Amino acid sequence: MSAGQPVDTGLTRSATFLVFSVLQTDSSMRAVRSVLSSVPDITKNISIRDTNANLTCVVGIGSRAWDSLMRLPRPAELHPFPEVRGAKQTAVSTPGDLLFHIRSERRDMCFELERQLIEKLGDTVQLEDQTVGFRYFDARDLLGFVDGTANPVGPSAISDVVMISEEDENSNATTVGGSYVVVQKYLHDLKAWKALSIEQQEAIIGRTKLDNIELEDADDGQQQSHKTLATIEDASGKEHAVLRDNMPFGSPSTSQYGTYFIAYSRHLWVVEKMMERMFLGNPRGLHDRILDFSTPITGSTFFAPSLSILKRLGD
Ligand code: HEM
């Protein structure tokens, strides 16, 4: 099995999310290929200055750029993020050919990696979004809840959820060891959220706020919590998880409070089904109440290939 990119490093104190469009010229594609292939080396070069800081970077490639950039067979499920139009909110689909998910315990390490990447990419790319996320106390989102609890734990459980293997239907030499990645940048209306009682907030999330204890699911046909809407099963009743590495971001002085959602999965349909249940509701019409207080302003899908594919891109 090909080694994956460092998807499973877990939540750090700091993270930077960079989404770019690539200029559609042969010379830009060539230059970008060379930069992407050197990401593991650039990261190693910086991380050696403080190995305890756990600096990592995962690279994702979007659907539009796949053919011209990668020149390899497409991952079977890869397509642009599909817009989901709900009654309250729309999960918007926004441009993105490249994703860099930079993580470290140290903000300066994330900064340095971003700086070197930007310098190398030069004018071959156009920035679509840059978000700097931070750990908020005991890994809470800005709604005040611990975020990431239901993630798989341990190398084999994580790779089972995120990594495409030879046994997967439609897998090929390009996709084995890789993962689909979905990102969405949400802004919260914290004033309205804080006007709710703690019990109302807990019912929306599906966990208690202080102790982070899971609440019972509502009866079928009733308004479901976020936790329940985001729990999905396939036709055989098997539950499918994803690996989330959400980070809070924002600036109190400009009243910007947000959550950067990022999910890795071996199957793209799993994330898309979660999204549909949240935005359209289950049953239809009873959407995720988190969306009454959270507006997505970006939405993009990528494929993070295995390390060996990434390194060979510059050949
Ligand atoms: C669970 C927050 C968006 C998928 C949770 C939990 C919180 C949370 C606090 C409970 C603790 C945990 O297990 O992590 C948020 C916030 C979001 C957001 C603030 C953005 C406004 C999303 C989206 C998806 C998603 C867009 C998927 C498309 C999940 C899943 C779980 C979860 C799979 C675990 C469910 C389980 O218990 O099995 N989220 N979330 N979340 N969320 Fe979200």
From TrEMBL:
<feature type="domain" description="Dyp-type peroxidase N-terminal">
    <location>
        <begin position="9"/>
        <end position="135"/>
    </location>
</feature>
<dbReference type="GO" id="GO:0046872">
    <property type="term" value="F:metal ion binding"/>
</dbReference>
<dbReference type="InterPro" id="IPR011008">
    <property type="entry name" value="Dimeric_a/b-barrel"/>
</dbReference>
<comment type="similarity">
    <text>Belongs to the DyP-type peroxidase family.</text>
</comment>
<dbReference type="Pfam" id="PF04261">
    <property type="entry name" value="Dyp_perox_N"/>
</dbReference>
<dbReference type="InterPro" id="IPR048327">
    <property type="entry name" value="Dyp_perox_N"/>
</dbReference>
<dbReference type="GO" id="GO:0005829">
    <property type="term" value="C:cytosol"/>
</dbReference>
<dbReference type="GO" id="GO:0020037">
    <property type="term" value="F:heme binding"/>
</dbReference>
<dbReference type="InterPro" id="IPR006314">
    <property type="entry name" value="Dyp_peroxidase"/>
</dbReference>
<dbReference type="GO" id="GO:0004601">
    <property type="term" value="F:peroxidase activity"/>
</dbReference>
<dbReference type="Pfam" id="PF20628">
    <property type="entry name" value="Dyp_perox_C"/>
</dbReference>
<keyword id="KW-0560">Oxidoreductase</keyword>
<keyword id="KW-0575">Peroxidase</keyword>
<keyword id="KW-0408">Iron</keyword>
<protein>
    <submittedName>
        <fullName>Dyp-type peroxidase</fullName>
        <ecNumber>1.11.1.19</ecNumber>
    </submittedName>
</protein>
<dbReference type="InterPro" id="IPR048328">
    <property type="entry name" value="Dyp_perox_C"/>
</dbReference>
<feature type="domain" description="Dyp-type peroxidase C-terminal">
    <location>
        <begin position="138"/>
        <end position="307"/>
    </location>
</feature>
<keyword id="KW-0479">Metal-binding</keyword>
